[in-house]
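Handout, section B. The chain below has 427 residues.
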Amino acid sequence: MVPLLQVRSQGTDLVINVEPRDPCVAGYPCEVNVSVENRDGTILLDYVKLITPWGAFTRNLGLRELRPNSTATISIAVNVDRNSLEGPNFVRPIVRYFRKGEVGLKLIEGNASSLLVVKPHVNATLLVIPQSKEISLGRPLSIQVSYSVRGVPADYKPSISVYVDGRLSMRRELNSTSGELDFSIPMSPEGSEGNHTVIVSLCYGIGCIDRSFEVYVRRSVKVVPGYNKEDLTRMLEAVRAEREEVQAAYTKAVELGLPVPEDVLLNLTIVNSKIKEAESLLSQQNISYADVLKIESLLKQSSHLLSNIKDRILSLYRERIEDMLMGAREDVEKIRKVNQTEYEELIGRIVHLSSRIGDLNLTEAPDFYSNVSREVNVIEERIRALRRKAEEEARLLSGITVSLIFVAMISGATIILRKWKSQLLRE
């Protein structure tokens, strides 16, 4: 009788090895490649199994043929336990196969190999911005999500789940470990008004990070017949145009190196959110009187925020220009006694530039700021030239003075000698 199953260790006709790979991360799936080298006769591979400290993992091959003097590489997905020891962990491959011309299944064990395991150091961030925290009954809720997961394996994909009042509403596997996405989720069924809790959860294998907020669902009421939406549309377009103007001014101020406070960008983000909410309400076929009031409030709040941002950016320009002109004026005062004509001309230019600061608007500010910067550079260069000229004249005057003193000393000595000689002759 030939046994139905024969087990043996690695032989000379069939060689099994675990191929080296980058470290696996504890708590995450890990692809391990097992190479099967057939050196004699044709075999049919039934499965490849990997014995690990975290269990046995099998890849069924369905009697894949492996000809003589050929090698097959089989990838096996291994779930590394999150509590796995860090460092080398030993695994052993096992292959079950048929050999053509022989009866019965055969098992062969490969040599034990070490698989390096490292502990994960995951850093996850999740920012969730609902388009509105108050929506009409039957309408979906739009959500903007920005996420980042660092420290997970490169081929691992996190997932986003959304729960409404504790019930799973949506789950999506993400294409990358960082990015932004917009999606809409259905809210409560007909007749369920009031507050509802929404939880957005970013999961990354060994943990999750959650963000929650409240949404008020209200029954929609048709707007009073004859109401004109064109007024609100024009108001919305005006706020959009103002937002674009302020956004461009902010970008230009940053490019010029002005110390723009961080909350300016935050306020711009808030304005964008309010404009989107107003657009969403205005896009409805039937809007309630409450919607009208809400849109007007959102647009007025946006316009107020934009005005404050414009005032702050303009104040930054004025402060920086005043600082530059004040520094230039201090430098000009140092040449007051050196060259009165140059001093009066330069002071006049500084006074003229200072007189324009009060009437400056946000549109003119960047160009005026650049012009003042160039003008101050010119003034500073002229001051340096005057100083160099004054120093040269001082050195020249010092040389002439020394020469005159020397000549005077010689002349005085000559006169003294003559007097002394005359006195001797008389004696």
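Note. The chain has a mean pLDDT of 82. Compare this with the example in section A.
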